[in-house]
Amino acid sequence: MNYPAVEDDFTRFLSECRKIKPLTREREYELAVRYHETGDPKTAQQLVICHLPFVVRVALRYRQYHLPMLDLVHEGVIGLIKAVKRFDPFKGYRLATFAIWWVKAYIQNFIIRCWRLVKLGTTQTQRRLFYHLKRLKGQNESILNDQALRELAEDLDVKEDEVIEMEARLNAADLSLHAPLADNGELTFMDVVPDPRPNPEEVLAAEQMNSDASLKIFNAINQLDLREKFVIRKRYLEESPWTLAQIGRHFSITRERARQLEQRALRKLRAALQAPAENALLN
Description:
Layout: H1 9-18, H2 25-38, H3 41-50, H4 52-60, H5 69-86, H6 95-115, H7 124-139, H8 146-156, H9 160-171, H10 189-192, H11 200-222, H12 226-236, H13 244-251, H14 255-274, H15 277-282
Family: Belongs to the sigma-70 factor family.
Domain RNA polymerase sigma-70: 71-84, 243-269
Organism: Desulfomonile tiedjei (strain ATCC 49306 / DSM 6799 / DCB-1)
């Protein structure tokens, strides 16, 4: 019995790519000049479509990372689009020669993002280490010896500690917080992760302290006379505080006299706030 062949999305995409005819140097130059001078989106689209087989060839170099090939091609196409926008046809080289850096960069960044739940490479040096170590470990699955790590550190001009740290991160597996700690499965890692949020007792204590502080400040301000209250409100409790000169003009006094009035009000507030809570409540 003949069963129908199972064809996935990537296989169908490859079939379509095989139908695309490559551009001649002359035709590519003509399209690139037209887009460079006019910015015509249809011309850019034609350049991108005709280079899809090129993106597929680059993406296939990364199949050892076991990520969906369509996703790798998709990222490579984004890199190709960026390259088309920046391509200068008057430099004399082909678009593929210019675009390969962009295509590889977008594919590699995608691999870095997807390789672990926690980011492995956040700097250019870490990304270089990631790919070099993956290549070396692909040649030999065993842990790299000290000599190989030392030579890699020299080649990439990085510290040996950085190479050792990246290798350890590559060897470590992601661990689910819901994974059981024991065979019975009743206790998970999530159950033993400390909660950084304050507990209810701490929340209640903080609210009580804020309430007490607010009451104490309210009572302290009520001990000031009308002018002192006005100064404190205008100088410290408004979004646009008044200057001492403005206070002086309001009360028809000098700036120095306004400063003395402010200092007297502040001394009263400090004394009231430092007093025991019982005394504040009685006032």
